[in-house]
Amino acid sequence: MPTSLNTLVVRTLSVTLCGTILVACGGGGGDATPNTMSSSAANISASASGNVTSNAGAAIGAVVAEGSDVAAVASMDATAASMYSGRGAASQNPTSTPAATKPADSAVTAPARTITSLRLENTSSVAQTDVPVTFGQVFAAGDLAKGIALNARFDNGETMPLQLDVKALHADGSVRHAIISGVVKSMAARQLRKMELVTGGSVAASTGVTTAQLLNSGFTASVSATVNGVRYSASADELLKAGKTESWLAGASVNEWLVSAPLKTAGGAQHPHLTARFAVRWYDSAKKARVDVTVENNWAYETAPSNFTYDAEVLVGGKSVYTKPALTHLHHARWRKVFWQGATTSDVVAVKHDTAYLIATGAVANYDQSLTIKEASLAGLKSGWTLDKSEPMKVGSANGYMPSTGGRSDIGLLPAWSVMYLLTMDNRAKEVTLGNGDLGGTWSMHYRDKLTDRPISIVDFPYMTIQGRPGDTQNPVTKKRESFPACATTDGCATPYTHDMSHQPSLAYLPYLVTGDYYYLEELQFWAMYNVLAPNPNYREQSKGILQSNQVRGQAWGMRSLVEAAYISPDADKLKSHFTSFVKNNLAWYNTTYSDNAQANKLGVLLNGAFAYQSGTGVAPWQDDFFTSVIGHASELGFTEANRLLNWKAQYPIQRMTDGGLCWIDAAMYSMKIKDTGSSAIYTTMKQVAAANQTEALRALTCASPEMGKLLKLKTGEMSGYSSSAIGYPSNMQPALAYAVSVSGSVGQKAWKTFTTRGGQPDYTGAPQFAVVPR
User: What value does the mean pLDDT take over residues 212-227?
Assistant: First the structure.
């Protein structure tokens, strides 16, 4: 694997010193509200210290250190830096990483302060000791300055050293996303403990934990696939001994190494397609290891790709922990299982993030926190998570035929199950959310580059495509075709599932955000890269990755995947600059075509890929609303070029709710005629829109009157388009309107008031994926 992905090295304070400093600091600061966190953190110096290392050792009370990865950040594409200069008008400013600078010679010190809190739950019926904890945490810009140590403080006053593996920084140099680890001394059976993340402390020397400690503990793990009677296998411990590792986590609490190899026979013959990947996480003080096992059938340009049926088995510590006979492994797909040695899954605590803080960072949309998710809905998630849905090569809660029409739970900025988890931190909802992230690997759209060992990129192969013709793949520079190899046989790549961009759920973004698991990072990147490599290379402008030729909903969900991958990918990952450039290219295209174009239509409607209705004269407002919500999300993630596009797009939902020319009752109609003929000009007013879409009898009635309701067979003040449904067209409109309100002043507030006081409100307590409200 490429060394450029080594984690930003982090150092931490020893247990004794950490405790001493916390006492000296008065045990840390008090709780801060989301509105005060960023401003208070802004006064903390952003300098840091640390020695140049490639593999950190002890890390207690974390602080960022400098190393080869920071140098990689410094040389990151200028495109990436320019894209992250601030946040959208509606929110705070988490932004990307500027070129790194040499830190000060001594660690930053600052008064202890609580940034956020989490809850740790021992779900076991017995007490636990030396309990490993690792989770992903996103921070608002300015909340955790680079070089500031981080410790845990429990509700009983106890403190715990934390290891902080920083993966991404904001433009101001503060931490955006980090993986936080520690070892909890003890937890009583079923105990739930509050844990605050408190700043304070300084850097300690490394303890130099290596794979030797892990291997000396007796760790072993392997996976095998018996294909047509021939056994192929790969061993994590043998790969660790060979020393070809990549560090993902490094410190005193935990170290994690990534290793991979083709599956081989006992005689050393490699399987041409099947590859094993292990992420081995070692808690040295607890003597516990977690092994993340992934088997892939993903090589992009390996000849004769095919499905393979084999008997799968995973061994950990010499014991069989998973078997699956006759597993049909689909082409360009992968599966994942996680196991422990020295512990069981019941020994691991459940981590419950602070929902309000996660939302306040802007990393996720502002879902309505006043909702109380139904217990029946949470129980239904768990009861529906059956083996026939959740085992390898299944697709879990997602629709196996993505192009299927109609409302459903996997469509939205986040799927329903993810929002249910976000709002409740319920263990059942988390299991389903992470499980669906695992099963994102089932779909046959994973293309890995053997040269880089990473998801393949159109920056490297600008003419590869899924949808284009073979002739479209000819690279004029290399004189070679970049088309993917044909399947081994005509039916060798048959799959029961169909994926697309227009109905694509977000499967891996939230799982990576809250866990920091490398598998989820790559899953997010695989999907985002697929969305730019699939279209005809000429339509996407080769390596630019332009999405404009897709359906409007496809442009929406494609952009969502790109902005999220660009936002959260580690700064040292070369793919971050690729995704950032794709986002920049697309926003430039949309701004040139619409926001910065004085001749653009006055309705605020996206036109490219839109006219699929009413004989080429109508658009789907709900698809347009999907796109607007994604642009709002991009603005909040810090892509400043999205701000003026959001301002322009906000016109459409706002006009539909406030312009007297069209009664807002019909603001979320299924399709809307916006020109007379295919070659006519776009209407300029909502009055013209109303005349083309509503009967004269309807237009003659007072808007939202009982008479109008009677004519439309609706309740008084109820919107058309299934207003009371959580997945109806007005519900589809809500996220777009929420983002539009944030940039539309008093007229936006008027639109929101009308929308939220209408008759026929939806019940989001069982399906909250569209329950987004203004910040």
Answer: 97
Q: What are phi and psi of 147, to 5 degrees?
A: 95, -5
Q: What is the DSSP letter of 104?
A: P
Q: Which residues pair with 281 in a beta bridge?
A: 256, 290
CA 12 to chain centre: 28
CA nearest neighbour of 162 among 181, 134, 143: 181
Of 270, 196, 235, 220, which Cα lies nearest the Cα of 22? Answer: 196
Burial of 52 (0-12, 13-18, 19+ CB in 10 A): exposed
What DSSP state is assigned to residue 272?
Answer: E
- Separation between Cα atoms, residue 320 and residue 90, nearest integer Å: 53
Integer Cα distance of 463 and 482 in angstroms: 6
Please count the helices (runs of H) and the strands (runs of E) in the chain: 23, 23
* CB distance 581 to 462 below 8 Å: no
Tell me the sheet residues that pair with 388: none
Q: Tokens in use for 50? A: 């640390």
Asked whether the beta carbons of 579 and 79 are under 8 A apart, the reply is no
533/501 Cα distance (integer angstroms): 11
Burial readout 453-478 (b: 16 or more C-beta within 10 A, e: otherwise): ebbbbbbebbbbbeebeeebbeeeee
Q: How many CB atoms lie within 10 A of CB 313?
A: 18
Q: If you ran DSSP here, which 8-state letter would residue 472 be given?
A: G
Distance between CA atoms of residues 143 and 100, nearest Å: 19
DSSP secondary-structure letter at 404? -
Q: Which residue has the tokens 């890995």?
A: 448
> Averaged over 552-581, what is the pLDDT?
98
Q: Which residue is it, tokens 């990072």?
A: 521
Mean pLDDT of 684-699: 97
Token pair recorded at residue 334: 């992968």
3-state secondary structure of 160: strand
> Residue 110 half-sphere exposure, CB side, CA atoms within 13 Å?
25
580-612 residue pLDDT tens? 999 999 999 999 999 999 999 999 999 999 999
326 class by beta-carbon count within 10 Å (0-12 exposed, 13-18 middle, 19+ buried)? exposed
